[in-house]
Amino acid sequence: MNIEQIRQKAKEMGINSEGVDKITLIRSIQDAEGFQRCYGRGMFVCENLNCLWRDLCLGISQVIKFEVLE
Q1: Which domain range does residue 50 map to?
Q2: Beta-carbon contacts of residue 33 (< 8 Å; ≥ 6 apart)
């Protein structure tokens, strides 16, 4: 999902996305959907199976993990 699609989803949920970066915006959407605001925080296990951002987030977490290990 690109930033414009994320902004559109936020708008549909009544979230103001003006001047908000992608990560903060996704976390706001997570919160509105009833999930923990955890996107991109480097978690390697995620129990939020229904979170829209789960696969993308875990992919980011893997990058963070490898950067820390190098």
Answers
A1: 3-69
A2: 13, 51, 52
